[in-house]
């Protein structure tokens, strides 16, 4: 089979003919039909990557495929079945050992060994091996038949999982949420949404896709922004997925301060420095702040059910589109194109 391999940071991707993986007990071999190419994919294998990975290594974290081969202990999946591969792999005997398949070998010696020994090769290939418990069946008749989605459009489910897990972690149901990512899944969960950001044009583009969403540009004046947030109504929950570059942003204080008494916040970003918080205000209002890394396994099932019910919109109906599809042989062009293709719901994919 063909697969894209990275031999180390800064060495790029090389297309190779390699042996197809074989199913063992506890694993599934998936024929890759579509895999997302993140806009940061080129940076992830650069000379100074943000995450560690074993060498050699096959990237590709978000996969929709078909079951090609099953281990002897599989009881529900069937050959040919359409599936989603959840990239958040955990150790079976120690769920605190966690890796992001095709992206990061985690933060401990155990997680690095776990990925290197068993799961170093991911979705930029014609076939990939994954743990049985990370392969989720999809109702193809509903998703691709009744709802009319193309296979690559189903990748949007995986892009929404982090947000879904964050809201579930803080017990969000029907409420007004303040967030800047995963708007589609927040709406599907019944929330009224205020989306924050610095780029007004991007916010307006988001509002065009989701007219029911309120938007707010961060001004840098924390008190003013708090008042603006509160003018939208009672803020029940705040989900934050800020990048490292947002470390000095004033929006943290604004969002914490805008929460109602008993409000909740989930921190899911990659800000490397400590955050100043309105200590007394948080205490008086009984605010809950929860750090949340990724999501729980049951959240994957929950999100799939939302999509299959038609409540969570995918594709153009959900404000997303597959901008372009590439073959593995076009890897250099694909990564360059993906790097330049940013924006909410704009997917670039490999279809091996």
TrEMBL record:
Residues 183-308 form the Alcohol dehydrogenase-like C-terminal domain. The keyword DNA damage does not apply. One of its GO terms (molecular function) is oxidoreductase activity. InterPro entries: ADH-like_C (IPR013149), ADH-like_N (IPR013154), GroES-like_sf (IPR011032), NAD(P)-bd_dom_sf (IPR036291), Zn_alcohol_dh (IPR050129). The keyword DNA-binding does not apply. Keywords: Oxidoreductase. Residues 26-138 form the Alcohol dehydrogenase-like N-terminal domain. PANTHER family: L-THREONINE 3-DEHYDROGENASE. This is Alcohol dehydrogenase.
